[in-house]
Amino acid sequence: xxxxxxxxxxxxxxxxxxxxxxxxxxxxxxxxxxxxxxxxxxxxxxxxxxxxxxxxxxxxxxxxxxxxxxxxxxxxxxxxxxxxxxxxxxxxxxxxxxxxxxxxxxxxxxxxxxxxxxxxxxxxxxxxxxxxxxxxxxxxxxxxxxxxxxxxxxxxxxxxxxxxxxxxxxxxxxxxxxxxxxxxxxxxxxxxxxxxxxxxxxxxxxxxxxxxxxxxxxxxxxxxxxxxxxxxxxxxxxxxxxxxxxxxxxxxxxxxxxxxxxxxxxxxxxxxxxxxxxxxxxxxxxxxxxxxxxxxxxxxxxxxxxxxxx
Length: 310
Prior knowledge:
The chain has 18 helices and no strands. With about 300 residues, it is an all-alpha fold.
């Protein structure tokens, strides 16, 4: 239905811009229709036509932002959003967009004050409390993050993202049973939350519930077969079961999806060790080390000493 509406809007604004090429509102709305259809380059061009007519059209800058995000041109998108904030420093949505994109880019230190900007304007913004919590979690400030998620849940007890993120925080704090309850609550509210299935699997793994953990990882992968984190966790668990061939398939799929995912390279090294393929394992550990995996250095050096001592 949304795509049908997008096509109808596009047809109408094509007519309006053809009749009057100086109609900035029509160009801006045409860009919105193109965004709805996922035609980001064309949407970007329409927003730029609107901005050529009125450089202070805040909504056109927002349209340009979304076009750039759709094209994965994130730095330019951030610059667009900053133009919106220059025009209106009290635009809570713009602060939230900026924080959300910086979170996506794992730039947690920069994201944190953006969510603070939202909360200064609206202390009851549930999403902003969640975003602030995620930023703090990314910075390792777990207790502060937990307080943010509790604030979000005090405002809306049915916010499944906050339950899931609270579960992740409690997991990091070693409060496993509380974390499990949070993931269960998140999944009751949203059974299609792949991250909550992953988190629940991680808790069950720590508690020794290996078959249940495997089912959780499979649920996550049923929702998203390209979920590299779930593939890696499943591979690690299959290694415990000594189902090494299946584990290798998981790790290899994960590194194909993201060659820069150090956890998958580290897991693949573990599977190769179980298969007695030590030199290949060392090569994988070297890749994991280059990607910053914290355990790769020591294990690779230990394996090299072992090989040289034979």
